Each structure stands twice: as C-alpha cells, then as structure tokens.
Amino acid sequence: MGTQRAYKVEAAGEKYYAVCDSAVGYQSRIEVMTIVGSAGSVVKAVVTKHGETPIFFERLYTQKLFERFEGLSVREPIYLGGASGYSGDLDNRETDNYIDAITGSTLSSHAVAESVNKSTAYVASQFFNTHWDNPYDRFQFTVKDLAMMMIYLIALAAAYLKKLVRFRLWLLLASFAVMGFYVKRFIAVSNLFSLITLQIPRLTDLGWYVLIIGALGFIVLLGKNMYCAWICPFGAVQEALNKVSGFKSWGISPQTIKRMKLVAPTLLWLAVMLGTFLGDYGTLDYQPFSALFLFKAVWVMWLMLPVFIFISLFISRFYCQFFCPVGFLLTLLNRWRNKGVRACQQIRVQMGNHWKSSKG
User: Which stretches are transmembrane (predicted)?
Assistant: First the structure.
C-alpha cells in the first residue's frame, strides 16, 4: 500500500488497515502502528519503537493514552487536548475526535498523536475517499515561544551591555520563572543526544529550535556559553540562592576542584555506555531539572535535588560546576570553537606575513 509501511489484513471476516508512522518526542523518534477497522475508526494504536525516558513514557501506558484512540474516526483529524502551544491542539474546536495529553509527558503524547494522525490521514485518503489537512503540520507561534525568545534576547544583550550585570539577580530570577515554570523547557543531555542522532522535530515545534539552536548559536557566533551563564533555570536558582543567602563560601582547594571537574564527564560516559549496553538511552536523563520543574524524576534525583540546592547556598552553582553534563558539553564545544577561531587567525597572520615577505 503506497510508499508507507502499510498493510491490509483480513481476519474473522473483517478488513483492517495497519499503518506505521512516526514523530519525534522528547528525545527520540516514536513509531506507532495504527490499526483501522472497515468502519473507518481506530481499533488499536501500538508503539513499535521508541527511545524515550522510561519514567515519562511509562505514564502513557499507566494512564491509558493508547486506549483513548480506540473508536475515533479517521474521517477527521484526531486532536490533542491539553496541549496549548503544540500543533494539533484541540483549542476551542467543537469535536469529539480528540484525546487528552498526559500531563508531564506532553511531548511524548504529542508525538504519539502526530504519528497516529499521519496514519489515519493516509488510510482516510486511500480507502475512505476522505481528505483533510493534518493540523500537526501547521506552524505554531505561541506566547511561550515569544517568552523564550525574550529570555534569549536578554542573554544576547548581556553579552554586549556590561551594565546589565547590575540587574543579573533579577534577570536570573526571570529566567528561573519563565524557562522553568512557564515554558517548562531546558536543555538536557537527551536533547543534545537527539540532535547528534538526528532525532530532530519538525519546525512546527519552534520552541525546540529556539532552545537548542539558540544555545549553540551563541557558542558558534559569539564564542560564549550564554545558555549556562544567563538562561538555564536550574543554574539561575542556584546562583540566586547563593547570592540571597549571604552565607560564607566554602573554600575548596584547587586540587579538589580539579578532581571534582572529572565527575561530570565520568557520569556522562557511564550513562552513554550503560544506555548502549541496555539499548535504552533513558540512562541519560539523570539531571535534577525534571524533579524541580516537572515534579517527576527517578528516586535518586529526588534524593539528590535537596543536596544540590543546599550546597549551592555555600558554593555558587555547585551542580553546574561539578555534575552537569550539559554544562560540560556546552563548555567543551565553546572551548573547541574558540581554539579553532584562534588557530584560523594564526594561520591567516602567518599567510599574510609570508605573502609580505615574498613580495619584499
């Protein structure tokens, strides 16, 4: 059937159409097989492949997201309720052909719904003589996207306007509130891993591009890791608490600092190796961001979160300095970029001098 992975099946005197399609979720591409009956309604939606963080994806099963598709029509789109700002959002449409997203796992819910819609749109056009525009293909620009852009523009201004340093505490608190609790978006290792493995969402997810491409753009164009310095909500809350508390900073010897700087790359290496061995890169999601801002995390992060917060009262950005894999990777990229620029400048100078000497 066509160029998609689609099958026509007859069982117990009934015809069924099964189509596989996929969409990018939080950190991976989620593939779903959608089975449609001869009456034109969804019989079943089954995930055939995914690499999402288990603790988040398990919610889709426990809260019966997939059962909600059963009985919905292929003759119109299946919208996603409770997904404001995402393509395919139910908004104020008057229809019963929708499911509600799972709170706290909206990105994964959206990817599943998008995958199912791709399949039902195909079945509707091929076998039920029905064509409709897929709402998951529509570009979205929301207030949350605008708020995120404003935070990034403030960070850009801070790179050039040194006077903004005097307002640093307030700007950090703004980032903490906007990025952490309003937009609820922050860079995790899983985001960078999805970029490396080309598990990239479509432009309909504008927020992803602002978040990731914006942070990398600062490094490439400015040679500065502005995300960690001005945007990261977890870094912001640590620094703000340290400044407001007024506690005397704990002294750490240079030798201890040097050793502790090895913790972040070591943990990252172990997470990648374990994920490769298990075939599940949910091992990369060991940062405390989800516990603080989404109120969901593995139990170890619930134990470590108060420890990181407490120590940050005495050591500014304690987690950022010694444990954060995102900070380690962005700083490493920034260092490589600046070394590359300096090397190119030296080559250009040497070539210029050589050209002048040859002319003389």
Answer: 169-194, 206-223, 262-279, 299-332
- Looking at the fold, whether 112 and 228 belong to one and the same domain comes out as no
Dihedral of the CA atoms 222, 229, 205, 92 (nearest 10)? Answer: -130
Same domain, 18 and 105: yes
Q: What is the pLDDT of residues 33-70, one digit of tens each?
A: 999 999 999 999 999 998 888 878 899 999 999 999 99
In a domain, 310, yes or no: yes
Residue with tokens 């591409």: 29
Tell me the one-letter amino acid at 141. Answer: F
Question: Which residues lie across from 7 on neighbouring strands?
Answer: 18
Nearest to 76 by CA among 124, 17, 108: 124
Q: Which residue has the tokens 């890169």?
A: 281
Of the two residues 189 and 294, the one the predictor is more confident about is 189
DSSP-derived pairing of the beta strands 79-81 and 29-37 = unpaired
Q: Residues 75, 207: one domain?
A: no
Question: Do residue 328 and residue 186 come from a single domain?
Answer: yes
* Rounded Cα–Cα distance for residues 26 and 105 (Å): 8
Last residue of a domain, one of 122, 137, 152: 137
* Residue span of the structural domain in which 105 resides: 5-137
Amino acid at 337: R
Chain length of the chain? 360
Burial of 279 (0-12, 13-18, 19+ CB in 10 A): exposed
What is the percent of the chain with per-residue pLDDT over 90, rounded to a whole number? Answer: 61
In this structure, are residues 50 and 65 in contact, taking their beta carbons and an 8 Å threshold? no
Count the helix, strand and coil residues of the chain and give each as a percent rounded to the nearest 5.
60, 10, 30
**359: in domain:** no
Q: 69: which 2 tokens?
A: 């598709």
> What CA–CA distance (Å, rounded) separates 4 from 220?
38
Q: Quick one: tokens of 360?
A: 């003389």
- pTM given for the model: 0.83
Taking the C-alpha atoms of residue 165 and residue 173, their distance in angstroms, rounded to an integer, is: 13
Interatomic CA distance for residues 61 and 78, integer angstroms: 19
- Tell which residue, 241, 231, 227, has the closest CA to residue 312: 241
